[in-house]
Design brief:
- By secondary structure, the protein is an alpha+beta fold.
- The protein has helices at residues 5-21, 27-30, 91-94; strands spanning 96-102, 105-111, 115-116, 119-121, 123-125, 136-140, 143-147, 153-159, 164-169, 174-178.
- Strands 3-4-6-7-8-9-10-1-2-5 form a ten-stranded antiparallel beta sheet.
- The protein starts with a helix and ends with a strand.
- This is Protease inhibitor Inh/omp19 family protein.
- Residues 56-74 have a biased composition (Polar residues).
- It comes from Mesorhizobium qingshengii.
- Belongs to the rhizobiaceae omp19 lipoprotein family.
Length: 179
């Protein structure tokens, strides 16, 4: 007794259809209802007046973490010259990402070696004023200078050894960069 290929396929399909129709896999789910959800907790809604928004260029010190109490920034000579022991700088020694501390507030500053104006591009991340305006940086001898978008000096820093720079902003605030 020989079966043709068409006959074999027809018998196989008939067997599959018959077995598929008689399954009870899903029949038990038709009768079940999902458990009801628990209601959300209810409470009182109160309305309070929000404080006025900060004017542009100002920051709320409470939104930035503070530097540890034992962080010290080296004092600079009043005439703006490099402190004793400051080493000569290269762009390669400054390039990277720095933890900046400005008057006890911390943020990050990226100093890639991407040419920009007379120096290199800079990118502050969540920094307080005036460091939030850093757009570029450059080195000259022992000094690292941070500039705003117009090329104005925002801060001058000097190497304090290893991976640390100390200095002050143009308005006299202490600033340090560490890795």
């Amino acid at each position: 007794m020989t079966f043709s290929k068409i006959g074999l396929v027809a018998v196989s399909l008939a067997a599959l259809v018959a077995s598929g129709c008689s399954t009870s896999r899903f029949s038990s789910m038709d009768d079940q209802q999902p458990a009801p959800l628990q209601p959300a907790p209810a409470g009182q809604v109160t309305a309070n007046q929000l404080p006025p928004p900060a004017s542009p260029g100002t920051t709320d010190p409470s939104q930035f973490p503070t530097a540890p109490a034992n962080t010290q920034v080296a004092s600079l000579p009043p005439d703006g010259t490099a402190p004793a022991g400051a080493s000569d700088l290269t762009a390669a020694s400054v390039a990277g990402v720095w933890n900046a501390s400005v008057s006890g507030q911390t943020c990050k500053v990226a100093t890639p070696q991407t040419k920009f104006g007379a120096g290199f591009r800079a990118g502050p991340l969540h920094c307080p004023a005036p460091i939030d305006g850093i757009k570029s940086w450059n080195v000259s001898g022992k000094q690292l200078t941070l500039y705003d978008e117009n090329g104005g000096t925002l801060a001058r820093l000097y190497s304090s050894g290893g991976s640390k720079f100390d200095g002050q902003t143009s308005n006299g605030q202490p600033i340090s960069l560490t890795r």
